[in-house]
Design goal:
With 165 residues, the chain is an alpha+beta fold. It has 5 helices and 7 strands; from the N terminus they run ααββββαββααβ.
Length: 165
């Protein structure tokens, strides 16, 4: 017998299930991790193919195949893209501050991505809505910082798209 409680419980899974069919991540570990993690760890890839020593753990949202990050325009993440370093490595999971992991975050599921700046305000607004949905408590503090920062140029929206395997 289907009860109201069963219907409510099933309705909570509908957005998650519909998102699974849109995923294009070939690695099921990465795909699963992006659904469950609050953080990604990032490192730009230098022109010689090595990972930069600039690394960080950041909030992210996923929309289709792309991950979005909102960060300071003066951050190394943004500056790397502006310098043409448009490849990065992303590790998906939440182990806390990358410095305190002693490199353990590099054991998390990972993928190589193409990084780009997002200037389309519609895409930015859609990503901001996803941030609010994903981080409801943190959004109380960060919503105005993200929105105002994007408006005044002190923050940038970054897109990370998986590279074809």
């Amino acid at each position: 017998m289907i009860t109201r409680r069963t219907l409510l419980e099933l309705s909570l899974y509908t957005p998650m299930l519909s998102g699974l069919s849109n995923s294009v991540f070939a690695d099921s570990k990465v795909n699963s991790a992006t659904k469950d993690s609050d953080l990604i760890y990032l490192s730009p890839i230098k022109s010689d193919g090595t990972e930069s020593s600039c690394q960080a753990e950041v909030w992210f949202v996923q929309n289709g195949k792309d991950m979005y990050v909102c960060t300071s325009t003066s951050s190394w993440r943004t500056r790397a893209i502006a310098k043409g370093l448009n490849r990065a490595r992303v590790w998906v999971g939440d182990l806390g501050s990358w410095k305190s992991t002693n490199g353990k975050y590099k054991d998390l599921p990972s993928l190589e991505v193409e990084a780009s700046l997002v200037s389309d305000t519609n895409v930015q607004q859609e990503a901001l809505t996803l941030f609010g949905d994903k981080y409801p408590l943190g959004w109380v503090v960060y919503e105005s910082r993200f929105r105002n920062g994007l408006a005044n140029g002190s923050r940038s929206m970054l897109r990370y798209s998986p590279l074809a395997s």
